[in-house]
Structure formats: structure tokens, C-alpha cells
Design brief:
CATH architecture of one domain: 3-Layer(aba) Sandwich
Largest sheet: 5 strands, mixed
CATH superfamily of one domain: Glutaredoxin
Strand order of the largest sheet: 3-5-4-6-7
Number of strands: 17
Oligomer: single chain
CATH class of one domain: Alpha Beta
Radius of gyration: 66 Å
Shape: elongated
Helix content: 40-55%
Structural class: alpha+beta
Length: 562
Amino acid sequence: RHVKKKKRRTQGYYTHSTKDMGLQELSSAEALSEFCSSNANALVCFSATWCGPCRKSHPTLMDLAESYEKDTSMDLKMALIYESNLGDDIHAYKVGAFPTYVLFQNSTEVGRVEGVNFDGIRNLVASKGCKKALGAGQSLGGGDSGISNLSPAEARAKRLEKLQQSMAASTAPPAAPTDAVKQDDVEMKEAASVPKKEKDGDQVMAEPEEIDQTANLDKEALDTLTGAMGFPLLRAQKGLLYGNGSAVEGAVEWLLEHQDDDDIDEPIPMKKPSDAAGVAQSYKCNDCGKVLSSMANLELHANKTGHADFEESTQAIKPLTAEEKAAKMEEIKGLLKAKRSERENEEKEEEIVREKQRRSMGKEMSKTREQMDREARKREAFVRKREKQAVVKERERIRAELEKDKRERMANKGKLSSKLGVDGYNPDAIQYNVPGAGESPDQEQQKEHVKKPPPSASKIEDYIKKVSAYRAGGDGGKCLKILLAYISNVVNNPEEDKFKRVNMENKAYKGKVKPFLGAKQLLLAVGFVLNESGDTLVLGADADLSLLSDTKDKLEKALAAY
């Protein structure tokens, strides 16, 4: 059926002419809203230009709209709107598939039918009571005022009478069809009822019915892509159709990868049965020839066997029957049991091997520990032996020294000819001014009172050299520093009496001046004299300040050189 379409502007929306049919085409969401609000019962078909089932069912939809339009008892208006005209507003109507037929009563949805299902549409319309209300004085027989008061049987007889009169009034009644015409009609009907016919001796096959690729897509996944994620319906269908595994994740990956393609918004083509037969329905392993039903099974097979050569196959894997599933389950259970038993045996063998290794390692460690203990004992014995040998040698040396001293005393009437210095028996070593062996401090003090020739000023440099000769521990330098302090105080403060006295019992004097030969003699040489009590050095009244000043300079030079 071919109907010439003419578009005209009517009440804010575009519509086909309703002279020959009752299907109106809407151009926008506003037109759809106005259409639903202006009609008590509105049946709207949500369609798409690229949808194969929509295109195929369009003539039938037009016939249905025309039949409702001609039925005077129906109060129903039908309209068609494409998803391209709605845009994002299509989500407000929750359309998840094309075509979708939604029935509105007073702008409120009361039911819908998804997919090409005209019986469902008729049942929906009938169940919602889309009938006109009967006016006063009308009967179900018709609206003729002349017969409105008659019974239904009388009204029917009246209408038949009028019909016969109109037929009799026709001037040229149609001639009865001839037998040849009847035969032609029968042949044409038979030819139309069979899928193929013969023409000029050739067989002409009926054109195969095209297959819609989007008919079996997952509606929940489609709703997720269009509703929650906001993808256009066409792109969502392409993502599910061409993505990996027909899942939401695969569809999103495909859409992100192909969103800039030039043909992303082109309609999805219909497929012929021959094309559908060539669609890959499984995967085949070229290494072993095994056919796998899904990508997951392919990956499992690849990981298990290490095979890497696969190809798509059109061979369909038939689902197992209940008996086959039960047999397969028993087989799997048997394999699992055998595998478990094999694993347990392997674990037992491995445990035995590990126990042997543990015992062997224990023995080796024990041997190693014993060997290390023996080596340690040997080292300790060697060290003790060397220590004993050193002790024996030291004893022998001491005995030899004692024997030498004994012989020397016997030769010198109990005295040693040498003096004990800091380096042992060295007569030329530097000696400290300490009490002699067996002498008490009182005896030493008495020896100091013995009159000796006074120190000479000409020997000041000799005294300084003697003090500077003490190098051990820097003792000579410390002594020079104390002597310099004594003399500098006198030179710098000649009027101060406190600097003219040196307490010999002072800790600094006893520790840093008294033990060193030449230190006390230096003080006596520059003018200090011992008091009566013998514990203090006092600068004499006739001391020469120039001599003190020269001695100060010499001490400074000696200290710098030290």
C-alpha cells in the first residue's frame, strides 16, 4: 500500500494528512505533549528511522490507525514520533526499545507495548475502554434520527430496506464476473500464497526476510546505557551489538573507541539470513581443533594448554540436555576426585622428601657446629699457650735483671752505680727533684737549709734549658708558664706586695714547679729568697727589676720555642 504523504502545520505539530489515514507524525517533544493533552485517548508509537522492525511494520501501523479512525465508536487518536525528533527528551518516556507503543489517557500513561505486537496493541486499547460515550436517544444500531425510537431489529430491517432501494436506483449494475476472470483471480491468489513461482521456466525465489540485529539485545543493559549513562539509543545499540560480550562494559569500551567515527550515527543495517548464517557463533582452536562457546572459555583453554592460534567459527554449540548435563556433572566430579587423590599422593611424596631433606640438613648442621667448636677450642688453646710462653719469658727477664742487680750490689758494697731514669737504667736521663730513697720530707727540708752557693744570675739560661728539657706530657712547658706568670706579675706590678711572694705549699707550685730541676734555682737567681719558715719565697728588696724584665723575655722565648 502506497500512500502519498503531505505534511502540514496543525496545532503546533507536523502531521500527515488524515484524509486517508489517522496516523499523525509529530516533530518535537512539545508537539507530543500537546497531542497527548488535546486528546482523551492518545496512542503514540515511538519509532526510529534506522529501525528495521519499525520500517517493516509501518504499513500495518497505518492500517490500524486508519481502522480506528473509521470506527465511529472509537475515541482514539494515533501518532508517530521518531527518536531523532525527541533527542534527550526520549529518556523522560523511558523508551527502551523500538518500536514502543504507549497509550495515554488525559496525558497520563496507562499502558505500553514494546516491539511489533499489534494484537497486544488491540488488547491494550480494548482493555482501557477507548470508546465514545453514547448520546441521548441513540442506540447501538446507529445515529439516524428517523429510526432512533425503533428496536434494534426494526432499525436493522429499516437500514436493509434503504440499502436495497439505493442499489435498485443505480443505472448500470455491475456485470457478473466471467469464469475466466474468476479463474485468473484464483490463480493470482494462489500465486500470492506460495513463496515461489515459475516464470519462463525459471524458479524465482521469494525474497528472504531481513533480520533485525537489535531485536535480541539485552534491554536492561540498553536501559543502563541510555538512562544512567546518557548515551543516545542508536549508539547504545551499536555498543551492545559490536562490543565485547554484549555487556555494558564492552559497549562502553567500544563507544569510547569509536565515538569519533564518521558513521557512528548511521542506522544499523538489516541482515539477511545468509548474512546471519555467517555470524561467528563460537571460537575454534587451530592447534587442537576444539570449539569453544565463549571468550571466557577461550581464555581458560589458552591458559590451560598454552595454545595461541584461534579463529572465529560459525559452528553453533548446541546446549546440553538435562541428561547430558547430569552425565557431564558426574564426569567432572569423577575428574575432580581423581585430581584430588592425585594431589594428595603428590603432597605425601613431597612431605616425605621434605622430611628427608630436613633430617639431612640437621645432620649437616650438627657436623658443622661440632667442627666450629673444635676450631674454637684449638684457637683458645693456642692463645693460652702463647700467654704462658710470654709469662715464662717475662719471668726469665726479671730473674736476669735481679741477678744482674745482685751481682752489681755485691761488687759495689750493696750500691748500684747507675741511677734509675724514666727510660730504665740510664745514668744520663733527666732526673726529677724528689726525695731520695728512704728520705722523709723533713730530712729533705733539712737538706735545703744546708748552705749551698746561691744560684748565679749568669746561669738563668741554663736553668731555663733544664726546665725546657722536660718533654714528657708537656711538663716543661707548664713549668715555664708558671715561672713566667710569677715574674710577669712582679715586672708589671712592682708596687704590689702580693706578687712578691710565692707560696711553696701552693698546689700549682708543688705540682708544676717543685719537681723540675732548675725551676726553683731560677726564682732564687732573679732575687727571690727563702723565708725563715722555709715555705715561702719572698722577693728581696734589692732585687734588680731589669734582671727580672730580661728573665721575662727569655721565658717568653723559651715558652714559644717549647
